[in-house]
Design a protein that fits this description.
The complex is a heterotrimer of chains A (about 325), B (about 400) and C (about 290). Chain A is an all-alpha fold. Chain A is globular. The longest helix of chain A has 27 residues. Chain B has two domains: about 200 residues, Response regulator (Rossmann fold, 3-Layer(aba) Sandwich); about 170 residues, 3-Layer(aba) Sandwich (Rossmann fold). Chain B is built from 13 helices and 14 strands. In chain B, the strands form two sheets. In chain B, strands 6, 7, 8, 9, 10, 11, 12, 13 and 14 form a nine-stranded mixed β-sheet that branches. A five-stranded parallel β-sheet of chain B has the order 2-1-3-4-5, with helices on both faces. In chain B, a hairpin with a 2-residue loop joins strand 13 and strand 14. With about 290 residues, chain C is an all-alpha fold. In chain C, a hairpin with a 4-residue loop joins strand 1 and strand 2. Classes of the chains: A mainly alpha (about 325), B alpha/beta (about 400), C mainly alpha (about 290). Chains A and C meet through helix 6, helix 12 and helix 14 of A and helix 4, helix 11 and helix 13 of C.
């Protein structure tokens, strides 16, 4: 089979569409067009990855959690503590360690907590995260507590690309690459039979039980995978910033990523992209123009989206497209 | 003819160089929204007051102030702001920084970019060790904590103390500082009570009840400035601790001038050590307080953060003049080392060895006068250095 | 350190939690609506009292009554115009809407009044100590305990003895059935929401002594309110009452004896409790 035919076959099987290359092209374009904003750009990329991990549990498995920052923080602190106390500063293996620790935490807490649902589940996820935050503060000798661990240094990527403290150039491309990897993983999961069983669990729990699907096991597994991915985002945060403190674990971060995902549209892979970019860019510009009033704008935007754009921005786009097509 | 020609040329040349007066760009990172918004406002006002009362301070150089919101005390926002100020706005000097995490996160950036940083609040002692480009005009917890420990033992003649502190680095710093100063002068700390985190104001009742039960001579409290302080004073009164013979002492964070009047009768008798309060009696302060009230209203008042903004601007003005408008980090630090100034808080100096501030600490008692709460000066400790770095205690040893 | 002081201290803070959270529990149980802006109504109540006392010179209790009515009216208006649209929406959209609303409240207060925290000036007789014979304790705390108990009694009577109370209980247990029996559920929603938010307003003002009052209030204490509601069980006033008191007292005892533990204990205990009994103290088994 020729290369062209093979590529086409691969694309059809995985339902790749031409426009899906756009976001990545745009990401690269940003690198060349906005060289002074790459620190902000890196934060956006990390947030997209974090939101993507939340979409796995929230959008696809239907688990509502306010404590996802626990895994982000676990990953962030793993990388930080390894670098500061064990002298382990190789970035890629650091990310792998972050994924492992966060994933294990996700597995353990998921197994315990996913017996419940609704408000109880929400509170349990919240309490788990809050406990982790308190533990990080109590262990301030290891974690740096409120003030955090400054001045973390990491070895150059693949031995060649140094971390750019001032302009964040290598961090940006690194984050973009990791995001691509994470995205492909999530995409593959979601389109697989595993992913479809998750949708089944979300839509009709009773029937899934009735056909004998291992519901609990699936839920815990997706929770663990999502946790690992969130951990990678956290590890990336520490590496890109050379710094980590308690703020990686707070309710602010959990609520923030939840809002972003809902804004963009959950249960559809690109919702994380749209939500993160829209929210962070909006916040960034409003905060610059009107430092004391940006919160009002965000609040109003959230209220309007909730009232008139049920499934987030992408849902709105869908509705418009449908109405346009129906004519 | 020739003379006129030369004169004209000279005039044209001087006009041209005059038009070239450099604009020095100052990047200001403060919380303008969120929990620290009040503090950001005080520092900002202090800066503006300096420029108002000293209009020629920067002449002939122009200054452009570029403000960025550091939002919450997480460090990441401040770091992004600093990065953009350096890379995009190309500022010459960075200043502001209310919270220690914000300054800590930005240290590596200013070192890499070789930009001078003048800290106007962040009080963790070892921050100035993080980068040779950092200087601080505000304070470290050890300035007032150590001095309070000494004063408690020597002036107040206390033998036993209980320490209550908010469980985060400035609180632990204050505990260590007070303990060192107190026990070096014959006192003994009999209980150390962590009192919740800096995020929300806890109900202090259980912690204060425990302190009351220990029956110390003094109860030394550190909490973050703001609502925590108001809660402390309320609870002290509510539990009848003064009647039980326990003096409440602390650093000036708990008697911040902008919160003072809302503390009520319970605060009378409170003894604090701090580098500034609005009732200090010197010419520069009288001038500042009067101008402040005129600009912002009779109920407004400068406080320690406001004066730090004021002094920070004075320091920056000194740097700009000394370097003739062309700012480089090494030159800036050199200009600041040993810099002396007659501030509203008294004489201050930047320590050449640590780039941190050296200043007076004032022992004050809160009294009632003409229906208002007023700080009465009962002692001065002059030229106090940051004892943490001086004694190389703990993390300051690096 | 005698038991009495500990008990009184814990009960007082528990009562504040109760007054603020009871409205949240009933509306969440009745309407099935996740209202994360509940803390915002508490904050508005506190500010209403401060402003009424400062600018109109109203005495404390008159200001409280005014705050209750004003916030209840605002809540009713918001319920009719905005909340009602989201009853059929998913849980997540409700979360988004109410968080957005909380942001709007926070920002509005910051812009209108300023970021500084405010103090509520308590009347003279509430300050200082009261002699109970065996113990002299803070008057304010004792008043809080008395008020909370009275409120609990009033609510219990309201729910058990009045027709409307019966209708609300019926609608909480089985909305469809209640509707088919002719209960005007929409009107009930508005009424309950207004009442619950009004109570939150009173709680916000009363609790300002302990919890403080500033624009960040709604999100800062949200977790505590949610914990109390989850542990108490949705929709039952008695559940919230006992949960608040239990948490208030436990928190006090733990902080007194193990201050190093910080707030960890409350989270750990909530976690353990909810694992053992997911429906809360008095909630229905799902």
């Amino acid at each position: 089979m020729s290369l062209r035919a093979a590529t086409l076959e691969y694309a059809t099987r995985h339902r790749l569409r031409a426009w899906e290359a756009l976001p990545w092209a745009a990401g690269l374009a940003v690198f060349f067009l906005f060289p002074n904003h790459l620190a902000f750009g890196t934060q956006v990329l990390i947030m997209i990855l974090f939101a993507l991990s939340l979409d796995l549990v929230l959008g696809y498995a239907g688990i509502v959690t306010l404590g996802h920052a626990a895994f982000f923080g676990a990953g962030a602190y793993t990388v930080g503590m390894l670098a500061a106390h064990a002298g382990w500063s190789e970035p890629l293996s650091g990310l792998a360690a972050a994924a492992l620790v966060a994933g294990a935490l996700g597995l353990a807490s998921g197994w315990i907590v996913l017996r419940t649902h609704g408000l109880t589940l929400l509170m349990l996820t919240l309490c788990t995260m809050a406990l982790l935050e308190q533990a990080a503060n109590m262990g301030a000798a290891w974690t740096g507590g409120f003030d955090g661990m400054p001045g973390l240094e990491f070895q150059p990527l693949l031995g060649r690309f140094e971390f750019d403290v001032l302009y964040f150039r290598s961090q940006y491309l690194y984050a973009l690459a990791v995001l691509l990897g994470g995205f492909l993983l999530v995409r593959m999961l979601v389109h697989s039979s595993f992913g479809r069983s998750l949708t089944g669990i979300r839509e009709n729990l009773l029937r899934m039980h009735a056909i004998g699907a291992p519901v609990r096991a699936r839920q815990v597994l997706v929770y663990a995978i999502s946790a690992a991915l969130a951990g990678v985002a956290g590890g990336l945060f520490t590496q890109a910033n050379g710094f980590v403190n308690l703020a990686v674990l707070g309710l602010d971060r959990s609520a923030g990523v939840l809002i972003i995902l809902i804004l963009g549209g959950y249960g559809r892979l690109y919702g994380a992209f749209v939500g993160a970019i829209a929210y962070l860019v909006l916040e960034h510009t409003l905060a610059k123009a009107y430092p004391s009033a940006w919160q009002l704008g965000i609040g109003l935007a959230l209220v309007l989206v909730a009232l008139y754009a049920r499934n987030g921005v992408l849902g709105l786009a869908d509705g418009l497209r449908r109405r346009g097509g129906a004519r | 003819m020739k003379a006129i020609g030369i004169l004209a040329l000279a005039a044209a040349l001087s006009a041209a160089s005059g038009a070239q007066a450099q604009t020095v760009k100052i990047g200001i990172v403060l919380p303008y929204t969120g929990v620290g918004a009040e503090f950001g406002q005080q520092v900002d006002r202090g800066m503006q007051m300096y420029m108002k009362l000293n209009p020629g301070a920067f002449a002939p150089y122009k200054v452009e102030l570029i403000r960025r919101d550091s939002k919450n005390p997480s460090g990441a926002e401040a770091k992004t702001a600093v990065q953009e100020l350096i890379a995009q706005d190309k500022v010459d000097i960075l200043t502001g920084f209310i919270y220690s995490p914000d300054a800590i996160a930005s240290a590596s950036l200013v070192t890499a970019a070789k930009k001078p940083m003048v800290i106007m609040n962040a009080g963790t002692a070892w921050i100035t060790n993080l980068s040779p480009m950092i200087s601080r005009v505000s304070f470290s917890m050890w300035h007032s904590g150590f001095a309070m420990g000494e004063a408690a033992a020597k002036t107040l003649r206390a033998k036993t103390a209980v320490v209550g502190y908010t469980d985060y680095p400035p609180g632990k710093d204050s505990l260590d500082a007070f303990k060192r100063g107190f026990e070096a002068n014959g006192g003994k700390v009999i209980d150390e009570i962590p009192m919740g985190g800096p995020g929300q104001v806890p109900d202090f009742t259980p912690f204060f009840q425990r302190a009351k039960d220990r029956k110390p001579d003094v109860f030394f409290v550190f909490v973050p400035a703001g609502d925590h302080a108001v809660g402390v004073v309320k609870t002290y009164g509510a539990l009848g601790m003064r009647e039980a013979g326990i003096k409440l002492i602390g650093q000036g964070d708990i008697t911040q001038d902008i919160k003072l009047q809302s503390m009520g009768a319970n605060a009378v008798g409170l003894i604090t050590v701090h580098h500034y309060n609005a009732d200090l009696d010197n010419a520069a302060n009288r001038r500042l307080v009067a101008a402040w009230k005129q600009e912002y209203g009779a109920d407004a008042t400068p406080d320690f953060m406001g004066v730090q903004g004021y002094d920070g601007m004075a320091a920056i003005a000194h740097v700009v003049r000394a370097l003739k408008g062309r700012i480089d980090a090494e030159g800036a630090m050199k200009a600041l080392k040993g810099w002396k100034y007659d501030s509203p808080r008294g004489p201050i100096m930047i320590d050449p060895a640590t780039r941190d501030i050296v200043m007076n600490e004032y022992l004050s008692e809160l009294v009632r006068k003409d229906g208002r709460l007023v700080q009465k000066n009962i002692g001065v400790i002059e030229a106090v250095k940051d004892m943490c770095k001086e004694l190389k205690a703990g993390k300051c040893a690096q | 350190m005698d038991l009495a002081s500990i008990l009184l201290g814990g009960l007082a803070s528990g009562m504040v939690l109760f007054v603020v959270s009871v409205g949240l529990s009933v509306t969440m149980g009745l309407m099935g609506f996740v209202n994360l802006a509940h803390g915002g109504f508490a904050m508005l109540g506190g500010y209403a009292v401060v402003l009424a006392m400062r600018h109109w010179g109203l005495p404390f209790f008159a200001a409280l009554a005014l705050a209750f009515l004003a916030v209840a009216a605002l809540a009713a208006l918001l319920e009719r115009t905005l909340y009602a649209r989201l009853y059929r929406a998913g849980e997540l959209d409700q979360v988004l809407f109410t968080i957005g609303l909380a942001f709007v409240m926070i920002a509005a207060v910051t812009l209108a009044i300023g970021p500084e925290s405010q103090t509520v000036a308590l009347p003279e007789w509430l300050r200082g100590q009261t002699d109970l014979g065996f113990l002299s304790y803070r008057s304010y705390s004792l008043a809080l305990i008395a008020f909370g108990a009275a409120l609990m009694l009033a609510l219990w009577l309201g729910f058990e003895r009045t027709r409307i109370g019966a209708q609300i209980r019926a609608a909480v247990d089985n909305r469809r059935m209640a509707q088919s029996l002719g209960v005007d559920v929409g009107r009930l929603f508005t009424l309950t929401f207004a009442l619950g938010s009004g109570l939150a307003a009173v709680g916000g003002a009363l609790g300002a002594e302990i919890l403080g009052l500033d624009p960040q209030y709604p999100l800062r204490y949200l977790v505590y309110f949610l914990i109390v509601v989850a542990v108490g069980g949705l929709g039952r006033v008695s559940g919230v009452f006992f949960a608040s008191l239990a948490i208030g007292v436990l928190d006090f005892v733990l902080k007194f004896n193990f201050p190093q533990g910080g707030t960890m204990f409350i989270y750990a205990l909530t976690l353990a409790f909810l694992l053992l009994r997911p429906q809360g103290l008095f909630g229905k088994r799902a």
